[in-house]
Amino acid sequence: MSESILFIGGARSGKSRLAEARTLQFGQPATYIATAEAWDDEMTARIAAHQAQRAGSAWHTYAAPRDLVAALHATDSSPRLVDCLTLWLTNIMLAGLDWQVEGKALVAALAAQSAPVVLVSNEVGMGIVPDNRLARDFRDAAGRLNQWVAQAADEVHFVSAGLSMRMK
Amino acid sequence: MSESILFIGGARSGKSRLAEARTLQFGQPATYIATAEAWDDEMTARIAAHQAQRAGSAWHTYAAPRDLVAALHATDSSPRLVDCLTLWLTNIMLAGLDWQVEGKALVAALAAQSAPVVLVSNEVGMGIVPDNRLARDFRDAAGRLNQWVAQAADEVHFVSAGLSMRMK
Amino acid sequence: MSESILFIGGARSGKSRLAEARTLQFGQPATYIATAEAWDDEMTARIAAHQAQRAGSAWHTYAAPRDLVAALHATDSSPRLVDCLTLWLTNIMLAGLDWQVEGKALVAALAAQSAPVVLVSNEVGMGIVPDNRLARDFRDAAGRLNQWVAQAADEVHFVSAGLSMRMK
What ipTM was estimated for this complex? Predict the structure, then answer.
């Protein structure tokens, strides 16, 4: 069974950069499994900025806004970076899919991989309770998904200010 | 003097589950001191979900939405889990009570217990500054209460994604 | 080259108090470089409360809402505490200055100091994505500034509930 590693941290905490470096330790080229969808100019700019960081021959990119399980099985010959779980969860919920079913399928798929998988996720539960129910439900789902993936992972790192502390 | 232990983390970080396990290490049955009040359907569902996790004979439940000091003194013959301080603070403030007076009384009560007390609390200060003053005041109070309880505690654990790091 | 040390944590996490104690370990009197500006009654009260904590002869105060580089050079004969970077960034952005230019100048100035510098900053990226673009941009800038300063620092501490974990 392969290794799976989770980097969890805040927005702009540097978690993607740390996760990229960790993925490349397993060898090159690696596959960047992108869950982001560019639905407006702001998101397009964010995706482009992240892609610029990965310029060069070290990475293949595989777009998987929703079907992460298929993406993992299709790329199981190289180290993978899944960036990020929080956007994937957003896409799942916006598409009206059952995030618990999808989340459990993801955890099962992780256990079935041969090549390593590094995953990036956001800690979103350390602010004030959001005003609206939708945001609270998302926060709950994100927190539970993080717990599931962390439980399945071999290594978990907590990230702030570009630095990490190993939790597992 | 008894041991007191604090688990602090985000929403849905798994802190309650870790705190439950830690409490039961001190022996069974333990007492679950619930500070949640079911004032709407959403809250009722959250409370029921938490109760389902504790099904079985290991736990007695003691409701204490506001009078936590009395609850601690009434249950000082078994290990206790206070879940959670952040909801208790909310109840205190909604009732128009002085949270600093109540918080200091709580810290004094902790020092006077014979049986262990495990407490759960939320880190709520790691998001963007809230728009409204009430939320900012609550955030300040929650942060200060966490500091007071952490200072009084023998052990403090920081929780994210179902995993903990010991801070004290 | 001098030492620089970063304390990063949530609102009311006790990070200022820990940073004050760390600064005074380098000797007295130390200089408190205050970035807060009192633009309303609430802020005036917050500043007064922080000043009351530092009463006595151990501290000189130097106000630097925007020109932190000049403040560092003007005070390079004693240990300094910069409290805090997040308010400084707010002031920079409100003044219409380029935070990236200012942030890079700050990092360069840190490397040129003779006396130690302790800095306080907020982790603001662990809540739900803010509704408005301005808040998201601020969150991004704060996260990146924290990464830059943490990379330049010799020591970085993550703070919650008045306790710290060393990240670097």
Answer: 0.93
